[in-house]
Design goal:
The complex is a heterotetramer of chains A (350), B (565), C (197) and D (275). Chain A has 350 residues and is of the alpha+beta class. Chain A contains 9 helices and 17 strands. In chain A, the strands form 4 sheets. In chain A, strands 1, 7, 9, 10, 12 and 13 form a 6-stranded mixed beta sheet that branches. A 5-stranded mixed beta sheet of chain A has the order 6-5-4-8-11. A two-stranded antiparallel sheet of chain A has the order 14-15. The longest helix of chain A is centred in the first third of the chain and has 34 residues. Chain C has 6 helices and no strands. The chains are: A alpha+beta (350), B mainly alpha (565), C mainly alpha (197), D mainly alpha (275). Bound molecules: heme-A (HEA) (2 copies), dinuclear copper ion (CUA) and copper (II) ion.
Chain lengths: 350, 565, 197, 275
């Protein structure tokens, strides 16, 4: 589904994009599948491409205006600076010119008209697309300060990391994301996949992405939502269709019940954990805290503040505030023994 | 009170001696506290504004230090969130607005040739309520638990989006401080606006027809109209917010069915005109300074006036361009994109007319003119990034990113702040009778230009690389480190520039060159009286026959009025 | 203050609008802008309350109060005429009637609020309450201010301290009063017509 | 006329400040303690009463003596000379330009250039693409959705609607741009028509190039850009040259408005001030 083709200001575009890529890749490192640098000029999804297309147009027009007007200013400043002979005299007193003023009203007007038309067209194209009926549906609910992710058709809930299959010409798989908020305003933004869209309470929203390359794409909450707005990261994992099916199958499975960690499970179910978290059927379904059923299939905890490593989990349970100051998971004041058992239990939740 | 103040002109036959004796017994400080003189109020406004600027500027410096490197532990999240909220709020409401009010207060009666503002007492009231409101806002910092547990500084951003501001999500009184103090300063601004309008309409000296008003007066007048129309919506919204928080009303309470979006509408119905309230006086300053330092009249005066009026009207209808990401209908999006883009036309006209004024002139690069030149380039860049933001799909990427931060600092610092400095350098001799040091002025200018562009130029890149605004920390390896570091380094230059400026202000007060009434060889009425002007401004109220009364005075053989019609 | 300049008496006339009138027009513009937001909020939340009582259950159009308020606009015009004709007795009579009509309006509003509170509608009850009380209350507070001004003028007049020189003040106050009336028309339409049906 | 020795100014007062303080405390009390509100209320009322007495029954005044040093107030008489512009009657003040090309010359020039451009474009279509209708249909595609998606075959066929639309669009733009050229020409430096003739087509083409994807996909796909620019250049140079050779007319701007409108009876300011 190629909606908008980028205009072909090839040289300028390559140049600028190149600059940005170079600048951005300074710290990119080896894992090129992980798109940590959210470069707007390096899109990997249809709406992001469409946006970049129009972006190039405006950038070019604005650059042109800047150069033309800027040069005129420089010229005027240089050419008409006070010269030695000027002291005793005043220059001719010119009041204005209807023609000239008309010209510099009409020309911007024309430019603006072009911009309006282009904007209208792209806006509608991106915002009101026609989708196949079987497009993947995802619900994302913003919480202070993590993302609840629901796959209604597949029937499971996860958090902070969204999986979607990659799209290709012969197998287009757009993902439609319904956006809602459980508390305050948030905004979903993964620059390389598409523009942002707010998550507002009482105001359901929708956006879509159609990624064309596998990898992990980073994004952020982009609307200030309180203390930990900074640590409300998103990861969108774009899988091959097969990987995606496998992932879905695993998510749909009931939680593992490893007898070796029964102690940890017991603590989990008897301490207050269960008031806020769910593991499978058990526990709070109120969505106060992230669903933990398949915690270990995710890469991170706390919306990006730590990894799903034993160490980080341990530290998290010991004192969430030390990793994410101000977050809404309380410090449960667990003993070291409890901590170890709980961590052992959590690490089995694959 | 509007009725009674006007009786000023009716004259009372009180015992003069008694009054004079009373006056003599007043101390210097009391004199300033009791003053209703527009010039003194103007000075106090500007000084208070500059103090708040330095305070909020130091906050900005702290913000930048926190962001200089990834994973910094200099400021915690709470402190950081308070910091940018207070920085934004005080820059806009406690630096921008009062400084503008100060300039308007000081200059308008002089420029239209009268003795005082139309409502002198209301004017004093406006100043004090602004000052007390500002103090209340900063008092919130002291009140960590505060007396009687009165909360702490607001931490919800300068536009305080609902429902983050509701009682559930913002406990304590942080939001109340924000709403109450800004409500108070709003009253002050309204008082100023009414005063400006009444003064311009009712107290012009003889011959000063509307089409002979200096452009400064025109643009400030237009600003005053914008204030009158745009500030009450903010007050209304704040009153609703307070009702929500104190009496449990549900305007912005999403849990009882209230809307999260309507606050955004109300805020930006105020908020967008507000940014034009902030920049139009900047335009006003530039429109006075460029002609004088080009030695030519302003190019296309009627068109400049028309463009200002057009900006006023259009800017009332563009607010939702701050809300392109809330999921409006396409019709809504396109409508607001259209109106927003249309503003580029009258604004462009202004830029071109300033260019036309310089064209063929004889430009003198004194500090006021330097700052205006800086303004021209920086505002041009800022306006063009504004145009990019107005392109709805592009804004879906740029909104709430550092690109927006860059955009609005280019207008607010590169535009407003630069013009404020231009104004200070230009009118300081009038206010104090002494010139500001020119050498230091040039240093000030160049340091600020370099620092400012370093700090905010690179923030465009940060935005394009996906850095959201209002984050107190970020992880390494996302391509932001270098730019953030450069951005922070820029602040060092800016701070040095501001320190030089403060030094210049103080030093020149005692040591500056004597200015005389008309140091710049200018054309408007404020230069037709002594520096500083006497409390009654003019011995005799002047009478004018053209837009450049002092030109007529200086070239009696060849006055302007013949040509202007 | 222009008059105090001695040199400006030349042939051509130089007329400028009077300060109080410009001032009160500004005030009216400000207030309109303020009311617009409250009206918009009311309109926006019509039918969005999650629970009762709803407007159609508890509101009855305050016809009598409206008649009082609107007719007071007429009586104040009569008073103004009398003032201009320097008939102070007649002025006081109509001015006093105006005040009374305003006061009746206020009392009736109070009665209505009492009724609503008895019906269980508080500002915190639902969105209807949240928007109704501030909007009507804002208008009522303007009536209060108006009554205060009207009353002051009445007292000064009664104590014979008001004379022709105060024409401007009287005019300006009556402009304000007309504005308060006009706002009521809008509020009435919003709350009792659009809000109920 | 007798000079007054003193001037009346509104008397200083602190009541407005007291009211402001009262109001602030009143509100501050909401978040601290009700006693503060109470204090604020009392202060506010007292201030209000004080303020009222300041202005009623009459505004209080203060009499300020006028300073004697009149010289300090007088702005400098610079005595600078003003450079005169050579043209026009009125001396050194004008609105640019003093002479303009008539609008009609713009329209005629535009038509002339338009004819040339049409000929060039059709020639290209005929010779290179093999059909004179090729450029015609491409142009008409702006307004005809059916042509926008058409294949090259169709684009070479004659279409009467296409021809009609193309002629209309071409006529309109030719005249419009011609008029703009006529208005702008006097503002260019020497060799105006060459400047304008080179600069404006380049800008125009660049703009068109950047946006054509959206406006006219068919054109985007098939147009030959070099030839497009050449046609534009041809147009602008011819139109510019034609306009340049047309008779300029005075704008009469050095005369007062009344004279320009032919109302000799009305007196100008200058005359007015003479009597
Ligand atoms: C003084 C303040 C000021 C001024 C003057 C402007 C001017 C403009 N602003 Fe800006 N703006 C802000 C202050 C200002 N802004 C602030 C504070 C915010 C952020 C608030 C927040 O979120 O905290 C903001 C945010 C903001 C947004 C929302 C971004 C977002 O959050 O998603 C948008 C979107 O449309 C925008 C657009 C514009 C436009 C189009 C102009 C135009 O008026 C610019 C017009 C000028 C020119 C275009 C240049 C000169 C013209 C020419 C040379 C003519 C030729 C040009 C063309 C034909 C294009 N601004
Ligand atoms: C007029 C308005 C204005 C001005 C002038 C400024 C000036 C500056 N601003 Fe700010 N800014 C805003 C208005 C303004 N800003 C607004 C509205 C926001 C949005 C807030 C929000 O998101 O809610 C914002 C947000 C904002 C952010 C984004 C915060 C975030 O989103 O996380 C940043 C970050 O870099 C920043 C930086 C700066 C800097 C470095 C300056 C510099 O130019 C400041 C330079 C001044 C100094 C450095 C002080 C110098 C003085 C001294 C060094 C001491 C002298 C001492 C004595 C004399 C005793 N500002
Ligand atoms: Cu969620 Cu910011
Ligand atoms: Cu805006």
């Amino acid at each position: 589904m190629s909606l908008v083709r980028a205009v072909r200001l090839k040289t300028a575009r390559l140049l600028l994009a190149g600059i940005f890529l170079i600048l951005a890749s300074v710290s990119l490192g080896a894992e090129d599948r992980i798109h940590k640098v959210q470069n707007v000029f390096d899109p990997h999804s249809t709406p992001a491409h469409g946006i970049l297309g129009i972006a190039w147009i405006v950038l070019a027009i604005c650059a042109l205006i800047f150069v033309v007007v800027g040069s005129l200013l420089v010229y005027a400043i240089w050419r008409f600076r006070e010269k030695r002979g000027d002291q005793g005299t005043e220059p001719p007193q010119v009041y204005g010119s209807n023609q000239i003023e008309m010209a510099w009203t009409v020309i911007p007007l024309l430019i603006v008209l072009v911009l309006i038309l282009v904007t209208a067209r792209t806006t509608i194209e991106i915002d009101e697309p026609a989708f196949p009926a079987d497009a993947l549906q995802i619900q994302v609910v913003g919480h202070q300060w993590w993302w609840e992710v629901v796959y209604p058709e597949q029937g499971f809930i996860t958090a902070n990391e969204i999986h979607i299959p990659v799209s290709s010409e012969d197998d287009p798989r757009p993902a439609i994301i319904q956006l809602a908020s459980a508390d305050v305003a948030h905004s979903f933004w993964v620059p390389q996949l598409g523009g942002k869209r707010d998550l507002l309470p009482n105001h359901p929203n929708r956006m879509w992405i159609e990624p064309e390359q596998t990898g992990v794409y980073w994004g952020n909450c982009a609307e200030f939502c309180g203390t930990q707005h900074a640590n409300m990261l998103i990861r969108v994992v774009v899988d091959t269709p097969e990987e995606f099916e496998a992932w879905v199958l695993n998510q749909q499975r009931p939680p593992r019940e490893d007898p070796a960690v029964a102690g940890g499970r017991h603590i989990f179910e008897t301490m207050t954990c269960i008031n806020c978290h769910a593991v499978g059927e058990k526990g709070a379904q109120n969505g106060f805290g992230p669903d933990l059923t398949h915690l270990m299939t995710r890469g991170t905890i706390g919306a990006g503040v730590g990894e799903t490593s034993r160490d980080d989990l341990y530290q998290w349970l010991k004192d969430p505030d030390s990793m994410k100051p101000g977050c809404y998971m309380p410090d449960m004041k667990l003993s070291e023994r409890q901590l170890n058992k709980l961590t052992d239990y959590l690490t089995t939740l694959k | 009170m509007s009725t009674s103040d006007s009786n000023a002109s009716q004259g009372s036959i009180q015992s003069t001696e008694a009054l004079q004796a009373e006056a003599a017994s007043r101390s210097r400080i009391l004199e300033w506290i009791m003053t209703v003189d527009h010039k003194r109020l103007g000075i106090m406004y500007i000084l208070a504004g500059l103090v708040f600027f330095v305070v909020a500027g130091i906050m900005a410096a702290l913000i930048r230090i926190q962001l200089a490197v990834p994973h910094n532990h200099f400021l915690g999240p709470e402190v950081f969130n308070r910091m940018f909220t207070m920085h934004g709020t005080s820059m806009v409401f406690l630096f921008g607005m009062p400084t503008i009010a100060g300039l308007a207060n000081y200059l308008i009666p002089l420029m239209v040739g009268t003795r005082d503002m139309a409502f002198p007492r209301l004017n004093a009231f406006g100043f004090w309520i602004f000052l007390f409101g500002g103090c209340l806002l900063f008092y919130s910092y002291l009140g960590a638990p505060g007396i009687y547990g009165s909360g702490s500084a607001p931490d919800v951003g300068w536009f305080a989006y609902a429902p983050l501001t509701s009682k559930v999500f913002s406990r304590g009184h942080t939001v109340d401080y924000w709403a109450l103090s800004i409500l108070l300063t709003g009253i002050g601004s309204l008082a100023t606006a009414v005063n400006i309008i009444a003064t311009v309409f009712c107290l012009r000296c003889k011959g000063m027809t509307l089409f002979r008003l200096p452009l400064f007066v025109w643009m400030v007048l237009v600003t005053a109209f914008l204030m009158v129309l745009a500030l009450p919506p903010l007050s209304a919204a704040q009153i609703m917010l307070l009702l929500d928080r104190f009496l449990g009303a549900g305007f912005f309470d999403t849990q009882t069915g209230g809307s999260a979006v309507i606050w955004q509408h109300f805020f930006w119905i105020f908020g967008h005109p507000e940014v034009y309230i902030l920049i139009l006086p900047g335009f006003a300053v530039v429109s006075e300074i460029i002609p004088v330092f080009s030695r030519k009249p302003i190019f296309g005066y009627p068109v400049m006036v028309a463009a200002s009026i057009m900006i006023t009207f259009i800017s009332l209808g563009v607010w939702a361009h701050h809300m392109f990401t809330i999921g409006m209908t396409s019709v809504g999006n396109v409508f607001f994109a259209t109106s927003t883009l249309l503003i580029a036309i009258p604004t462009g006209i202004k830029i071109f007319n300033w260019l036309g004024t310089m064209w063929g002139g004889s430009l003198r690069f004194e500090p006021p003119m330097l700052f205006c030149m800086g303004f021209l380039f920086q505002f041009l860049a800022a306006g063009l990034t504004g145009v990019m933001l107005a392109i709805v799909p592009f804004d879906w990427q740029l909104s709430d990113s550092y690109f927006v931060v860059a955009h609005f600092h280019y207008v607010l610092v590169g535009g407003l702040l630069f013009t404020v400095f231009a104004a200070v350098y230009y009118w300081y001799p009038k206010v104090t009778g002494r010139m500001l040091g020119g050498r230091i002025g040039k240093w000030h200018f160049w340091l600020l230009v370099v620092g400012f562009n370093l700090t905010f130029g690179v923030q465009h890149f940060l935005g394009l690389l996906g850095m959201p605004r209002r984050i107190y920390t970020y992880e390494a390896g996302r391509g932001w480190e270098l730019w953030n570091m450069i951005s922070t380094i820029g602040v060092v230059f800016q701070a040095a520039a501001i320190l030089l400026f403060v030094y210049n202000l103080v030093h020149s007060w005692y040591r500056g060159k004597q200015a005389g009434p008309d140091p710049w060889d200018a054309w408007t009425l404020e230069w037709a009286t002594s520096s500083p002007p006497p409390s009654y401004n003019f011995r005799q109220l002047p009478e004018v026959g053209s837009r450049r009364p002092l030109w007529d005075l200086k070239h009696p053989d060849d006055p302007d009025w013949y040509h202007e019609e | 203050m222009t008059e105090s300049s001695p040199t400006t008496r030349t042939a051509t006339e130089w007329k400028l609008p009077p300060i109080p009138k410009v001032g009160v027009l500004c005030l009216i513009a400000m207030e309109s802008s303020l009311f617009v937001i409250f009206v918009v909020a009311y309109l926006y939340y019509i039918g969005k309350s999650l629970n009762g009582p709803l407007p159609r259950d508890v509101l009855t159009a305050p016809i009598l109060a409206s008649i009082c308020l609107l007719s007071s606009s007429g009586t104040i015009v009569l008073a103004e005429h009398a003032f201009k004709a320097n008939e102070m007795g007649r002025f006081r009579f109509f001015w006093g009637i105006t005040w009374l009509l305003g006061a009746v309006f206020l009392v009736l509003t109070g009665v209505e609020w009492k009724h609503l509170i008895d019906e269980g509608l508080l500002i915190s009850t639902n969105l209807f309450g949240s928007t109704y009380y501030p909007l009507v209350g804002l208008h009522a507070s303007h009536v209060v201010v108006g009554l205060f001004l009207l009353g002051a003028v009445f007292l000064f007049s009664a104590t014979r301290r008001l004379d022709k020189r105060h024409l401007m003040s009287v005019e300006v106050i009556s402009w304000y009063w007309h504005f308060v009336d006009a706002v009521w028309v809008v509020v009435f339409t919003t709350v009792y017509i659009l809000g109920v049906y | 006329m007798p000079e007054k020795p003193s001037i009346e100014l509104p008397a200083p007062t602190y009541w407005p400040m007291v009211v402001a303080l009262g109001l602030t405390l009143l509100l501050a009390g909401l978040i601290t303690h009700w006693l503060i509100s109470l204090a604020g209320l009392l202060l506010g009322i007292r201030g209000g009463v004080g303020w009222f007495h300041d202005v009623f029954p009459h505004a209080r005044h203060e009499t300020v003596p006028v300073e004697v040093d009149e010289a300090a107030e007088r702005p400098v008489h610079t005595g600078r000379k003003v450079t005169h512009l050579s043209q026009g009657v009125g001396g050194h003040r004008v609105r640019y330009p003093e002479q303009v090309h008539p609008i009609s010359s713009g329209i005629r020039g535009g038509l002339l250039g338009g004819v040339l451009m049409a000929v060039m474009a059709v020639a290209y279509g005929w010779i290179v693409m093999g059909s004179p209708w090729w450029p015609v249909n491409l142009l008409a595609a702006i307004a005809l959705p059916s042509l926008q998606t058409a294949d090259p075959e169709t684009l070479m066929q004659f279409s009467s609607l296409g021809l009609l639309l193309a002629i209309l669009i071409h006529l309109f733009t030719s005249c419009f741009v011609g008029t703009l050229l006529a208005a702008a020409l006097p503002m260019f430096p020497r060799f105006a028509f060459i400047w304008a003739g080179l600069l404006s087509p380049v800008i125009w083409s660049a703009l068109f190039y950047a946006t054509v994807t959206f406006i006219n996909p068919a054109m985007d796909k098939y147009v030959s850009w070099p030839w497009f620019v050449v046609c534009q250049l041809g147009y602008a140079l011819v139109a510019g040259y034609y306009i340049k050779t047309s008779q300029r007319i005075e704008t009469l701007q050095t005369y007062p408005i009344a004279r320009r409108a032919g109302l000799e009876a009305m007196r100008s300011r200058k005359e007015e001030s003479d009597d």
